[in-house]
Amino acid sequence: MDMTADFNEQKLEVSSFIREVFSYINRFKGQLFVLKIEDSLMDNPLFPVLMRDITLLHKAGVKVLIVPGTRKSIDKQLVAWEIESKFAAGIRLTSEEALPLIEQASLGVAQRIMSHLTASGCHGIQGNWVMARSLGIIDGVDYMRTGKIERIEKDILEHLLSEDFIPILPPIGWNKLGHAYNLSSTELATELCKYLVVGKLFFIGSENGIRSEGLKTGQDTKYLESTDSGVISALDIDQAEEILKLNPNLDFAQVDYLQNAIRACKAGANRVHLISGEIQGSVLQEVFSSRGDGTMVYANQYSSIRPATVDDIPDILRIMQDYIAKGYLIPRTQESISEKLSDYVVYSIDNAIHGCGAIHAFEDGSAEVAAIAVAANYRKSGVGAAIVRHLIATGRMKGYKKLFLLTTQALDWFYPFGFRDGTLNDLPPTKRNNYNLKRNSRILILSLETK
Ligand SMILES: CC(C)(COP(=O)(O)OP(=O)(O)OC[C@H]1O[C@@H](n2cnc3c(N)ncnc32)[C@H](O)[C@@H]1OP(=O)(O)O)[C@@H](O)C(=O)NCCC(=O)NCCS
Question: How far away, in angstroms, is 414 Cα from ligand 1 center?
Answer without folding.
Answer: 9
